[in-house]
Amino acid sequence: MSKQYVWYASYGSNLSRDRFLCYIKGGRPRGSEKEEVGCRDQSLPIDESTYIMHFPLYFAKESERWQRQGVAFIGLKKDEKSYTYSRKYLITVEQFMDVVKQENNGAELNLDLQDVMKNGFKTFRDSWYGTILYLGEEDGHPIFTFTADWDLDVPFNKPSKEYLSMIIHGLKSTLSLKNIEIIDYLITKPGVANNYTDNDMEKLIKE
Predict the structure, then answer these.
(1) Contact 149, 131 (CB under 8 A)
(2) What domain range is 55 assigned to?
(3) pLDDT tens figures, 63-73
C-alpha cells in the first residue's frame, strides 16, 4: 500500500531542520530541556521548501521544553497583512500524526484530516497545539500546521534566548534570511516586542 504524504508547515523552533529531525529521529534539540521520542517511521522528509503563512505569529505560555518561557503560536484568522515565515516538510500522514502527538506531550489524538480540510481548522484536544489548520495544497498534497484554539485571546510571553536562537537558526539556515531581515521580522511580534531590543537580537544572531 502506497504511503500518503502531507506537508507539515512549521513556524516556530521547527523552522530549524535539525530541531525538526529530532521529532522524526528522536533526540534532544540544542537548547531544549526535553528528549523527543521520534516517529515510528524515521524516514527523512522527501521534500521541503519555504512557505509564507498569512496568519499572525505571537509568543505565549510557559514551555517546560524551553526554559519555562513563551513559545510560538499563530492566530486562527487568516490575515493577508500577516506575513509568517514557515518551512514546510513533506512527510507521511503517520509521521505527521506522530509529530502532533509529540507536540501534545504524547497524548493520543484521533485526527481526521479530511474533516480539517473541510472546516479549515479543527480542535482535537484542549491543549497548546491541539488545533490543526489546513492551509491549502501544493503539488497535490495538503498543507497542515497546528496551533492553539484560543486565537490571540491570551497573555503574550517573552520567549527564551534558547528558543529564539533556534528560530533564528531556522530563518538563517533554511530560509536564508539576512540578519537585518530576521531582526525586522521578529522584533515586532507579540512576546518579542518590548522584551528584546535590536541589540539583543543582533547578539543572538551572532552566537
Answers:
(1) yes
(2) 5-206
(3) 988 999 999 99
Query: What pLDDT score does 103 carry?
Result: 87
- When divided into structural domains, the chain yields a total of 1
**Letter string b/e over residues 122-136, b meaning 16 or more CB atoms within 10 A of that residue's CB:** bebbebbbbbbbbbe
d(CA 107, CA 125): 9
Q: Are strands 131-138 and 121-123 parallel, antiparallel or unpaired?
A: antiparallel
> How far apart (Å, rounded) are the C-alpha atoms in residues 203 and 174?
20
What CATH number did the domain enclosing 35 receive? 3.10.490.10
Residues near 57 by Cβ (< 8 Å), separated by ≥ 6?
Answer: 11, 72, 73, 74, 82, 84, 189
